[in-house]
Specification:
Layout: E1 2-4, E2 13-16, E3 19-29, E4 37-44, E5 50-56, E6 60-63, E7 67-77, E8 80-84, E9 91-94, H1 96-99, E10 111-117, E11 120-125, E12 129-137, E13 151-155, E14 160-163, E15 172-176, E16 182-185
Antiparallel strand pairs: 1-6, 2-3, 2-6, 3-4, 4-5, 7-8, 7-10, 8-9, 10-11, 12-13, 12-15, 13-14, 15-16
Length: 188
Amino acid sequence: MKVIASSLRKGNVVELDGKLYVVLTAQNFHPGKGTPVTQVDMRRIADGVKVSERWRTTEQVEKATVDERGYDFLYEDGEGFHFMEPETYEQVVASADMVGDQKAYLQEGMRVFLQVYEGNPIAMELPQKITVEIVETEPVVKGQTASSSYKPATVDNGLRVMVPPHIGVGTRIVINTEDNSYVERAKD
């Protein structure tokens, strides 16, 4: 299916020279003089090679049709990351380089959106917020509550998060997966 280059977004799959690429970043540039262009950084699905392309924003690009649906994360082993489709119980295995640094957020039973092309997962979208538990943080210093200062904390998946001073070890909090920021104390 042909689409104009300016409509490409992160996670889209593009067919170029008979090979498939997953879009990592897409930016539209509109210079004061000259033609507006779309700069796209992509990863070739077959071997993981990163490529940069630049198209005029009105140019037609071949977008591959990809099956995108929710999958539940099961576990990780030497083969890769195992996901299961909740209605058909069909399982797919994602490679470690496809999951990349998003692996820290994966929790057993978590629902993620996978883009699957011919039975192979090629891109993953995490939920925007996840709940984690604080395993290490500095103790509260009396009199520190007047200012809105945040303190560093380590959560159960190994990430470092800045939290308000009243949050202690063992507290469950909600964080944003896009930038590791503290959202709120967990309701459970």
